[in-house]
Design goal:
By secondary structure, this protein is α/β, with parallel strands linked by helices. The chain has a single domain, classed as P-loop containing nucleotide triphosphate hydrolases (Rossmann fold, 3-Layer(aba) Sandwich), CATH 3.40.50.300. Strands 2-3-1-4-5 form a five-stranded parallel sheet, with helices on both faces. The longest helix is centred in the last third of the chain and has 18 residues. It starts with a strand and ends with a helix. The site of adenosine-5'-diphosphate (ADP) has 15 residues, from helix 1 and helix 9. The site of shikimate-3-phosphate has 11 residues, from helix 1 and helix 7. It is an enzyme of class 2 (transferase).
Length: about 170
């Protein structure tokens, strides 16, 4: 089964923390973006450029539903919980959903120079802050655990998640 799910904005650390958490728990890491890339055989940038965002979102929904049948830690993409049907899957899963929070300043710092996120490329600080606020409710609704990642090392975040999951399972 999927042991826990990570949600949050681009740059909040879902992929990094998910990988580390999976290593600690000695289980597979399922990264939704990586699953999509493997399925299509194209990068996220290529998928957006050649097929458009709507196509990416439908694949994302399909791969999310499929991921629940697998074993591991699931890192979603920053837009995953925005689609209501995806959000319902997350909420109804009964699996701990961790919302990794990050401030706009920290996100911009972490993603400075990043070329792999087509939506990030289109955002200045004002637009990024606006999109974060627009999506916040979707992350909050999906989550059972919330934690700020600003100025925290991934290992510290993993430690906190492990404690929270333990506490919520007992
Ligand atoms: N807690 C953290 N502290 C510092 N840098 C981080 C942290 N988490 C992630 N990063 C860095 O931020 C960038 C984006 O991380 P990533 O895990 O890909 O985020 P997401 O999957 O949420 O978009 C990467 O360069 C990663 O090394
Ligand atoms: O926020 C978004 O809409 C997206 C976030 C990305 O994942 P990360 O949050 O892992 O960067 C990826 O799914 C795609 O570029 C779209
Ligand atoms: Mg990611």
């Amino acid at each position: 089964m999927v042991h826990s799910i990570l949600v949050g904005f681009m740059g909040s650390g879902k992929t990094t923390v998910g990988q580390l958490l999976a290593e600690r728990l000695n289980c597979p890491h399922l990264d939704l973006d990586a699953l999509i890339v493997a399925r299509v055989g194209k990068s996220i940038n290529q998928i957006f450029a050649e097929h458009g965002e709507a196509y990416f979102r439908s694949l994302e929904a399909e791969m999310l539903a499929g991921a629940f049948k697998r074993e591991g830690i699931l890192s979603t993409g920053g837009g995953t919980p925005v689609r209501p049907s995806n959000r319902r899957l997350l909420i109804n899963s009964g699996i701990p959903v961790v919302y990794l929070k990050a401030s706009p300043e920290v996100i911009i710092n972490r993603l400075h120079g990043d070329q792999s996120r087509p939506i990030f490329q289109t955002l200045d600080k004002k637009k990024l802050t606006q999109l974060l606020h627009e999506r916040e409710n979707a992350y909050e609704q999906s989550a059972t655990i919330r934690l700020s990642t600003d100025h925290k090392e991934p290992s510290e975040i993993v430690h906190t998640i492990l404690k929270s999951i333990g506490a919520s399972v007992q």
